[in-house]
Write a structure and sequence with these properties.
It is globular, with a radius of gyration of 11 Å. Strand 1, helix 1 and strand 2 form a beta-alpha-beta unit. The protein has a four-stranded mixed β-sheet with strand order 2-1-3-4. The chain is built from two helices and four strands.
Length: 74
């Protein structure tokens, strides 16, 4: 699994990465993380508000940090 955190490196970007890593740990899953900070690269995903979360090239979240991660199955 490849996970990209899109954003400038702001506090919300850092929190999104933390929440994502916590969710993966709960699931017992592993992933490669990449930080995308270039605005042109971020815009290429159609994201207008950061932070953004891309998993295996699919945009799952933008503009917020979830309190409960969207990948965690109930």
């Amino acid at each position: 699994m490849n996970i990209k955190i899109l954003g400038s490196g702001c506090a919300n970007c850092v929190n999104l990465e933390r929440v994502t890593r916590d969710a993966l740990r709960e699931l017992g899953a592993e992933a490669e993380f990449e930080k995308v900070t270039e605005y042109a690269d971020i815009a290429a995903y159609g994201i207008m508000r950061t932070p953004g979360l891309v998993v295996d090239e699919q945009v799952l979240l933008s503009g917020r940090v979830p309190t409960r991660f969207p990948l965690v199955a109930s």
